[in-house]
């Protein structure tokens, strides 16, 4: 089947959202008789999430409300899984057509904050993902009648606020084989761009985050009668706080350290014997976070040494930085602007445009191609304030979450549409005997490596390509072709076509051989980034600086990689 025109996809998504908006809107608005009872019920479900805030891993009402909503829909083929993946308040709603194919997932968060309810707007995240899921399913049903299989999934992800719910889901296999995972998050309207509805960013917006609980143990004593008999654990807290404050003077703008005293003592006339601190340590990437965390640990150890206390620490779930997928970003921004919604690629240049926060969606983005967009709602306060709670419960906030749902649904249709295109032909027009999709293929961004060929080969203006030779393979990066950005890898035996999300093997019959060459090509592409790789018996290791030793291609071709091993290798290399 030919690819659907983007305008046709947008129209079908809009029709679906218009159809369901009456079920999701305020109960006082007019609605047709056909949907009146459903609309009333769904309004209650969504209002319950905002009006009955629940903390991490306690979101039973939200879990039940969403599942009941899908149970109430006509028989549309949705499969409802309560307490999914062994997590009590996680859920999964799925819809499949055909067999196999790509899987698009939408994350729905719904946990709240202690004392101030939905001050981070996770109720709107749930709303937008539910709407995007339904719109994508209905649009695909209406537009695609071929046999290309696909699956659309709604994942209810509890405990983003510190509990690392998505880490549990990752470990349980919830994201295995997912092609793309999308969600959007609300923020206050940007003062520098009041008309902006939404934005996306490929880097820098969500930081890697280590969370640590620190306990100092001293010796209690009477604070007035015999203070010399005690070892003051509160002194250790004060010393640690001062040490870290001094360290903060030398932090990069992308690094943050902040903490609170959870326990400072019991009575003024008792030398505190035990005190507790909790700190968050953030940096722009996991790589730059590690040395910063080590410095903070030394601050705690120095405080313990200086005061005579002992120190123990406990790690909470660590969040990785967000590696947003470029192709999904581009598709989302284009779709939103096509529908008339003011959306830009990166809000970093706008006043208040950088989040500075962290999310467990970052961990997901290290597993599968991910997208974590932002959208802006009218509110008198920033996230994590009572004022933002009010904005998250407003009708305008609700409407804006639906606008973003439309953009995500269009991207989901395009992911499925692209799959059909790639299955039908290869970019050079040759008949493909087989193709092997990369788990994180679109994140490799080979066309964006053109400025860093290993041998410094210049652009060929006639063919608009960069070429370089590595270990007997000639790599040609075609920067802009009718079929998009394409790379050809050629040696005396094979020609392999590398698209943004696939590999094509016109000359190879064997699936096993294709798997091995998948590993090879990732190594070749990463070599263009000035990395040299060496092989061990069980793994691949990278030397960050190039050496005289070139890649031993015969050694790589001998690797008998299983699909799971290949997925892990691709993930490891792509995250360097």
Automatic annotation (TrEMBL):
* Superkingdom of source: Eukaryota
Matching InterPro entries, A to Z?
Amidohydrolase, Bact_exopeptidase_dim_dom, Peptidase_M20, Peptidase_M20/M20A_hydrolases, Peptidase_M20_dimer
Where is each Peptidase M20 dimerisation domain found?
Answer: 214-303
Q: Which UniProt keywords apply?
A: Coiled coil
Report the Gene3D superfamilies cross-referenced here.
3.30.70.360, Zn peptidases (3.40.630.10)
Q: Which Pfam families match?
A: M20_dimer, Peptidase_M20
Record-linked PANTHER family: PEPTIDASE M20 (PTHR30575), XAA-ARG DIPEPTIDASE (PTHR30575:SF0)
Task: Give the protein name, as stated in the record.
Answer: Peptidase M20 dimerisation domain-containing protein
Organism source for this protein? Penicillium alfredii
């Amino acid at each position: 089947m030919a690819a659907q025109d983007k305008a046709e996809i947008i129209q079908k998504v809009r029709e679906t959202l218009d159809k369901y908006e009456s079920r999701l809107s305020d109960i006082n608005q007019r609605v047709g008789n056909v949907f009146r009872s459903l609309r009333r019920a769904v309004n209650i479900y969504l209002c319950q999430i905002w009006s009955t805030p629940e903390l991490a891993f306690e979101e039973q009402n939200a879990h039940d409300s969403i599942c009941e909503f899908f149970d109430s829909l006509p028989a549309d083929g949705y499969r409802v899984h309560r307490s999914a993946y062994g997590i009590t308040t996680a859920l999964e709603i799925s819809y499949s057509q055909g067999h196999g194919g790509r899987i698009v997932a939408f994350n729905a968060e719904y946990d709240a904050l202690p004392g101030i309810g939905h001050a981070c707007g996770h109720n709107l995240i749930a709303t937008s993902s539910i709407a995007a899921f339904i719109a994508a399913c209905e649009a695909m049903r209406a537009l695609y009648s071929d046999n290309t299989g696909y699956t659309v999934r709604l994942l209810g992800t509890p405990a983003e606020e510190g509990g690392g719910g998505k880490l549990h889901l990752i470990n349980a296999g919830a994201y295995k084989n997912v092609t793309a995972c999308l969600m959007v998050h609300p923020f206050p309207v940007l003062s520098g761009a009041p008309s902006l509805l939404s934005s996306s960013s490929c880097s820098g917006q969500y930081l890697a985050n280590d969370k640590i609980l620190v306990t100092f143990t001293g010796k209690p004593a009477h604070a007035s009668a015999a203070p010399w008999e005690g070892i003051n654990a509160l002194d250790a807290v004060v010393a640690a706080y001062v040490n870290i404050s001094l360290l903060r003077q030398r932090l990069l703008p992308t690094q943050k350290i902040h903490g609170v005293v959870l326990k400072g003592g019991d009575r003024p006339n008792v030398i505190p014997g035990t005190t507790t601190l909790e700190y968050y340590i953030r940096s722009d990437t996991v790589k730059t976070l590690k040395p910063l965390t080590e410095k903070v640990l030394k601050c705690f150890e120095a405080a313990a040494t200086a005061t005579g206390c002992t120190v123990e620490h406990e790690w909470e779930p660590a969040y990785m930085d967000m590696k947003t997928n470029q192709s999904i970003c581009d598709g989302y921004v284009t779709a939103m602007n096509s529908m008339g919604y003011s959306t830009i690629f990166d809000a970093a240049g706008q006043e208040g445009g950088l989040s500075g926060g962290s999310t467990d969606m970052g961990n997901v983005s290290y597993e599968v191609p991910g997208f974590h967009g932002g959208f802006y709602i009218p509110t008198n306060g920033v996230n994590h304030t009572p004022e933002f709670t009010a904005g998250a419960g407003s009708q305008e906030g609700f409407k804006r979450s639906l606008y973003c749902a439309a953009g995500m649904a269009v991207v989901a249709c395009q992911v499925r549409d692209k799959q059909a295109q790639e299955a039908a032909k290869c970019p050079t027009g040759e008949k493909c005997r087989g193709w092997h999709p990369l788990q994180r293929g679109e994140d490799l961004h080979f066309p964006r490596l053109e400025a860093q060929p290993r041998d410094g080969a210049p652009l060929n203006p006639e063919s608009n390509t960069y070429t370089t030779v590595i270990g007997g393979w000639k790599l040609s990066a075609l920067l802009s072709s009718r079929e998009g950005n394409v790379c050809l890898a050629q040696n005396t035996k094979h020609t392999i076509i590398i698209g943004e999300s696939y590999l094509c093997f016109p000359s190879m019959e064997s699936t096993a051989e294709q798997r091995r060459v998948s590993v090879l090509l990732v190594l070749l592409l990463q070599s263009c980034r000035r990395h040299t790789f060496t092989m061990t018996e069980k793994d691949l290791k990278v030397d960050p600086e190039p050496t005289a030793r070139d890649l031993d291609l015969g050694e790589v071709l001998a690797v008998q990689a299983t699909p799971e091993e290949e997925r892990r290798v691709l993930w490891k290399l792509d995250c360097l």
